[in-house]
Amino acid sequence: MAKATLDTKKLTPFLAPALLDSSDKSADAVLRDRLGKAARAKIKGSDGVARRVISDGDDQVRDFYLRTIIYEEVRSPAWAPANTLTDKTHQFIIIAVQGARAALNASDGAMRDRILKGLKLARPVPRAIIESFVGDEASVLHLSGVHTPTAVKPNSKSLTGSALEHALDPLGDQTFVLSAVRSRPSVPGLTDAKNRPVSIGAAPSSGRIWIGRQKSLDEFVETMERVFLHAQTAPASPRFAMLAQQITDVSAVQDAYEISVTPKDLLSEDVVDPADYAFARKWAYDATFEVIPPAKGAASGLSFTVECTLLGVALGQAEIAVTFTDGVVGLALTWKNPAASSTVDHQECRRALTDVDMVKIHYESGHAIAQGRCYSSQYTDQPFDWTFQSFQGFDVEKEKPALVKGQSLASAIGVNGDNSLFAFVLEKVFVDAAGRPAGWLACDDGSMELADFIHLDPTKKVVTLVHVKASGSAKVNRQASVSDFEIVVSQAVKNLRHLERRPLGTELTKGKGKKIGSAVWKDGVRQKNRDDFIKAIEQLPDRYKKVAMVVQPRLTQSEVTACEALTNGSNRLLRMKQLSTLLLASRLSAMACGAELYAVVDI
């Protein structure tokens, strides 16, 4: 081992460790040496940068076994021609080990991450330990979304303030998980000049904290002693309860009750490849997935069995195996008794139900899997005001009319006994006092649609974008289902944003030449084309009223009433709270567009 050429006692390192636990029985000097060897291997690794270790020394200060590595980097500036100019920098790594726990500090965050990537001999400490370093007076918050990526809601966001624990939106922020925070937790011995808790940064998902620059190596060790003691003795106390809570212990997760497919392509702002769009719509709208409850007394956990149906045709039962490794979810599908209808459909179904970016799974235990992670969430007690309407005479499981060979959708809506939900919109949603269809109505179904239907009330100057999705069940006693609403509500809000940037008349003109362009009615009477409808749209004032409407008969008034009588702790009530929270948060997004959000459900 080369002797240190610098007086490491005079180093002033920035304390920002990744806290690690030994994966085996390695501890103290043995664990330090193994981590030091792993670090040197990454320093010598080939990534286009010349590095040379210039100092590498061991030390023991009180109960800590230390390893300090200082190395030199030589690289060409990105803006200069190769081999003409070089930049030389010096970096350090300090490894501090106490028992089977270690702290990896590096002046270069990229090198720290390089060392941690694929590290087998140690793993980040549990999330709960890092959460003990989260306190009050949060000045910086970094949040990561666990919702389906959509243009109307950020995938992540950062906030700054003086006490951000009071600034979070209990509705809109429920689909975000805490990624990193700077706050003032009570850690014994760590106070500032005013005797207040020092400001500490914490990233629970990556096992990191950061405190600040230390005046010497001795102060570094003293601070690490307090950090290790706090990590060992502080009780787990998750903060920001209104946020989704990512969990790493899934022992309490059980009894899946629904699975949904929410493809990004249906919510994309960009033009989507027609084949990708068709796949996304097929498995989000045309397919239903009913989770089969386990046999009475059977063990329940992450995995489950689901009955798969496509356009009313049974594909068979599929066993969904859910694995959980280092906080990341894995999905695998095995057909239990596949119907012999279409091997292509079975292959596509497997693709949809094993894509962790598309699949959401809800459990009776109050947990949910989304974006390849597992979360426990809190839900609001505020109810959503549903619009109840009778669907008698219509098939709540059929979104569009069945087509015969050579027939277009535009010509089939509302004729020849059509009892689909498209016919319901035409005949029952927008009616006058006598119950007759009123106003302009145009169907816009298809790729990059504005909505399934656009309705104009020329008298009240109201434009309504209607989004329709068939119910996954027609049972009289059917319960609330988040999956039946999730994708259609997200689309409804997304398309409201379109009306902020692109004139409605222009968008409707683009679809004039399509077959669906002939599906236009005025007061229930079919028109030849969209021309007069577009003229009526163009006569609207600049500030016309906008409404997003979701037609989804999965929910019934009797179920809403029944849930009002239930007490907290009921799984049935939990589902209703999840659904209400989804709609309330979406209503806030609609209001940001100057619009209202309605949801038409069954009586």
Sheet with most strands: strand arrangement = 23-30-29-26-25-24-27-28
Distance between the termini: 79 Å
Q: How many domains make up the coordinates? A: 4
Count, helices: 13
Q: What do these coordinates show?
A:
By secondary structure, this protein is of the alpha+beta class. The chain folds into 4 domains: 8-124; 130-240, no CATH class; 256-376, no CATH class; 387-404 and 411-602, no CATH class. The chain is built from 13 helices and 30 strands. Strands 23-30-29-26-25-24-27-28 form an 8-stranded mixed sheet, with helices on both faces. Helix 9 runs parallel beside helix 13 (571-592). It is elongated. The model has no long low-confidence stretch (mean pLDDT 90).
Summarize the structure.
The protein has 603 residues and is α+β, with helices and mostly antiparallel strands.
